[in-house]
Amino acid sequence: MTLLMDSIKKYDIVLPYLQFLIVYHMKLFLYPNYRDIYKSVLDQHEQKVFVDDFIKILKFIDPQFIKEQDMPMYYKEFMFHLLKANIEPLENIKKERVLQSSCTVTSTKIKGLRLELTGHFINQYYEMKENDRVYIKYFNRLKKCKREELKKTIEVWGYKLRDFRHAGFVVEIPIWAFAFDFVLKTPNDALELNHVNIFKSLFTRIFKK
Question: How many CB atoms lie under 10 A from the CB of residue 185?
């Protein structure tokens, strides 16, 4: 706050460089290694003061400098929420980036002539909703994956930024369907995500060893 007041006193504005610098340091308090420390060193009243002061300082920052920060999208959304700023600039980025996101296969099991794939669609740009579904596309066939509920959330100071409950999936496909694509279906859209080649992934692991 001292830096902000000095900038306004000397230049009548908060210098753009200063805004960017302050947000750069503020974002660190949102990261896992930092955001829980305040619980161990501050009592409940002091925690409230801390968050209130965080918001007071944030109100001096142009949302553009938040948007330009190198940090996960859900932290940017959180700062925009605290500022009550128009989130449309972030929504436009999310729509573009979600197409570049990918499903992750966490385990593969062979069951006779079938492959059982378990994984999730966890990324910073999209939170899967209850009516969303992950599909696997192989040999021009589209197969719906069963939901595997995940107990994973991202919370900051009591605010839930992401709930990955609906992001997990499990599916069985023929063992010869070694190459396939993931598709995310929402009530309003169908998004083709990443392509997977099981044999290629297996060979890559072997050669790395």
Answer: 15
